[in-house]
Amino acid sequence: MREPRQETVTRLACDGSGPTGGHLACRGCGGVLAMQMAARVLGPNCVFVIPAGCMAVIDGPFPLSSLQAPLLHIAFEAAASAAAGVRAGLDARGKHDTTVVAWAGDGATFDIGFGAVSAAADRNDNVLYVCYDNEAYMNTGIQQSGATPAGAWTTTTPRANPKPTPKKDMLAIMTAHRIPYFASATPAFPDDYLAKLERARDTRGFRFLHVFTPCPPGQRFEEQNTVRVARKAVTSRVFPLVEVAGGKALTVFDAGEPTPVREYVRLQGRFSHLDDGEVERFAAEVDARWRWLIDWAERESDE
Q1: How far apart, in whole angstroms, are the C-alpha atoms of residue 207 and residue 197?
Q2: Which of the residue ranges 61-75, 123-137, 253-267 would you say has the lowest mean pLDDT?
Q3: 175-193: string of b/e by CB count within 10 Å (b at 16+)?
Q4: Do 31 and 181 meet the contact criterion of CB atoms below 8 Å apart?
Q5: Each residue's pLDDT tens digit, 158-210
Q6: Alpha-carbon span 241 to 254, nearest angstrom
C-alpha cells in the first residue's frame, strides 16, 4: 500500500481560481476526481458539510482548504443533520439560493450516519447529499462497510473470511423515501456525472447522489487504473448509472454490450482470492439486478 502524499490540484476550488496549494489525497484518488468536477458545477455559492473520512483529510487542515469554499468539518454520524442545520441558518438569513452540500463517504452514509440520512430524507430537507463511495472505510485502514460488496477482501474481512453479505441497496432505500431526486454516477463518465450534478443543484428538497469513486490502495489496483476500474464497474453493470425522481425511475444508462464481470473483478486485488465459480456467481447476481432495473424502468415509463 502506498502512503498518501500531497498532490497539485487544478481547478478544485469552487471559485475557479485553481490551482490551489494542493491537497492530501493518495495518488489516483477517485474521490478527488468527483470533488473536482462537483466544485466546478456547484460554484462559489455553496457550503460543504464534511464528516470524518477521507475528504476531511484531503481538503486540508485548518485553516487551509483546497476547496476555497466555506466548509464545516463534522462528526462521523452527523453530516445530514449538520447540513440541515446549516440550511436552516442560511434560510433564516435569507440566503435561500446557497447550495448546502453534505459530502460523505460510504461509512458515514451506509452505516454510521444512516439514521441521520434517513431522517433528512424523510423531512425532505433542502440539501444535496453526495456519497463518495469507495466501498470500505479507507481512511481508517480499509475496514468493511455496508457498501463493501460480497466476497471482497478488507482488513476486517480477510481472504479466509471475505465479506459474506451483499452491498446495501441505497437505490432501493432512497427510492422508498420518495425523495425528489436520486442518481448514481461516477467521474469516469463525466458528461453523465456533470449533468446529474446540475440537475441535483437545481432541484429543491433532499437530493442524493451516489458516486462511485475507486480507491487504489483500498481496492488494490495501480493508481493509473482509477478511471479504468470505474468505467468497467459501469460497463459490466456492477454499478449501474440510474436516475430517479420522486420514487419513479427516469433513466438507466446502457453502455451497450456489457463488459464481462470477471474483467472488472480481476483488475482489483481485493477480489484476487475468488475462484472462477465465485466470480460466475457474482456475475449472475449482477445480471439479475440489471434485469430488475430495466424491468422497473420500463414499468415506470408505461404508467
Answers
A1: 10
A2: 61-75
A3: bebbbbbbbbbbbbbeebb
A4: no
A5: 999 999 999 999 999 999 999 999 999 999 999 999 999 999 999 999 999 99
A6: 8
Please state whether the predicted TM-score (pTM) of the whole model is above 0.90.
yes
Superfamily of domain 30-302: Thiamin diphosphate (ThDP)-binding fold, Pyr/PP domains (3.40.50.970)
303 — pLDDT class (breaks 50, 70, 90): low
- For the chain, what are the domain ranges? 30-302
Q: Residues 68-74: contacts with CB within 8 Å, 24+ apart? A: 68/12, 68/13, 68/14, 68/15, 68/17, 68/20, 69/13, 69/14, 69/15, 69/39, 69/44, 70/46, 71/47, 72/47, 72/48, 74/49, 74/50
Dig out the grid coordinates for 100 from the structure: 448546502
